[in-house]
Write a structure and sequence with these properties.
heterodimer, A: 102 residues, alpha+beta, Alpha-Beta Plaits, four-stranded antiparallel β-sheet, two-stranded antiparallel sheet, B: 313 residues, 78% helix, globular
């Protein structure tokens, strides 16, 4: 079974829901073929993100990709988003089946 | 002072939020209710619009647009020069105040109906017209000439945003269908309107309660601004209403448009266009101060002012 697994990076971004359209178009520009977005709630440096209305809503974006694409994406986030927006970004090492898809 | 009962739902939501009740209205319902309200307001405006010759409104529209452009300029000067707020924050807040609050408009219309005061139904057209120019002006004020503005995403955010799509869409549908064509939909869009508005205000009470913490960040100057600015805007609106020979009710609605601050279209657009502006300040002032002020105190005051201005005691 292990031979069918391929190492990939899982990038998770938790951010303001207002950023969704912008981030998705960045993904397309970088050639990232897919992502998953879910609604998220919680608390942090930016206070209570309770999702009561759009301005206090968060989303959680997950992207599976290879290291080279990941680096480009992280650089972009660092340069254009970290300063002014509330983002939590972390990367996990994961193994995927059907590696040609990610 | 006459009181509009739907406001009690807002106060109930506010109270529930303040006492940390477990009452929570899901974000999806907020979305659904706001879609309904925007569409219904657009439709009602479109039906009224079909009764007036469009050409006669063009001149009025230009006057209203020109006068309304003063609001973000006054707000920016007050915030940046008097209040010493950084340029991006002052510009973002000015854009919120230059744009309009659809729900404040709906509550004012309902207040007037309750008093049997007539108004020009086509004023919804001005509601649509005033929604976005101030947002563009806000971005220009924030950037002046540094050329960093990402105009494309910002304009896309505003013009394809649900506020404009639903208001303009509703307006067109109402205008094309006319009063007779819309009749089969009356039960949903006209009869249920006030109930949905009450529900939305309950939700807004909860949201405002959750933003009260922002007011601490805003400080005394911004709190004062949140009360003074709508009074300045309303006065300008009443004068323009008088100049355009609007009825008392029409002048009140124009005053409300000039006095209100946007919290649906503006926060999302400003977040994208002026990222360095702190949203807690603009939303704290627009939603924490000006929205409740207009609802509870402002609308009756503007009505009183309009009556006095018309010399009809």
């Amino acid at each position: 079974m292990a031979s069918k697994l391929h190492p990939r990076q899982l990038l998770t971004i938790i951010c303001e829901a207002d950023l969704e359209r912008q981030l998705v178009s960045e993904f397309h520009r970088l050639g990232i073929g897919g992502h998953t977005i879910t609604d998220a709630r919680g608390q942090g440096k930016h206070g209570d993100r309770d999702g009561l209305w759009p301005a206090s809503a968060n989303i959680r974006i997950e992207v599976l990709c290879e290291s080279a694409v990941l680096d480009a994406l992280l650089t972009l986030l660092e340069q254009h988003y970290f300063k002014s927006y509330g983002l939590v970004v972390f990367v996990s090492e994961v193994s995927v089946l059907r590696g040609d898809r990610f | 002072m006459p009181f509009e009962p739907v406001i009690l739902f807002f106060l109930l939501g506010l109270l529930a939020g303040v006492v940390r009740s477990d009452l929570k209205i899901p974000g999806v319902l907020y979305e659904s209710l706001s879609i309904f309200l925007l569409l219904a307001i657009g439709l009602k405006g479109g039906i009224e619009l079909s009764r007036y010759p469009l050409a006669s409104l063009a001149g009025q529209g230009l006057v209203v647009l020109a006068a309304a452009a003063l609001i973000p300029l006054i707000a920016f000067a007050a915030l940046h020069r008097l209040g010493r707020l950084p340029r991006p924050d002052a510009a973002s807040i000015a854009a919120h105040y230059g744009s309009v609050s659809v729900v404040t408009f709906a509550v004012a219309a309902s207040f007037l109906s309750r008093l049997d005061v007539d108004y020009e139904g086509y004023l919804v057209v001005f509601l649509v017209l005033l929604e976005f120019p101030a947002l563009v002006l806000g971005v220009i004020l924030a950037r002046r000439a540094d050329g960093q503005t990402r105009w494309g995403p910002m304009l896309h955010e505003v013009l394809s945003g649900k506020s404009i799509v639903l208001l303009v869409g509703g307006l067109l549908i109402g205008w094309l269908a006319g009063p007779e064509g819309i009749k089969p939909l009356d039960r949903l869009f006209i009869d249920l309107f006030k109930g949905v508005l009450a529900f939305f205000l309950l939700e807004m009470g909860l949201v405002v309660a959750s933003r009260l913490g922002d007011l601490r960040k805003a400080g005394a100057f911004l709190i004062g601004f949140g009360i003074a600015m709508p009074l300045v805007g309303a006065t300008l609106g009443l004068l323009v209403g008088n100049l355009l020979n609007l009825s008392i009710g029409g002048s009140v609605l124009l005053a409300v448009l000039f006095a209100s601050a946007s919290y649906i279209a503006a926060p999302a657009a400003m977040r994208i266009a002026i990222p360095e502006a702190n949203p807690a300040l603009s939303i704290g002032a627009a939603l924490g101060i000006t929205f409740p002020f207009n609802l509870l105190i402002g609308i009756p005051i503007y009505h009183h002012m309009a009556v006095r201005l018309a010399g009809d005691f």
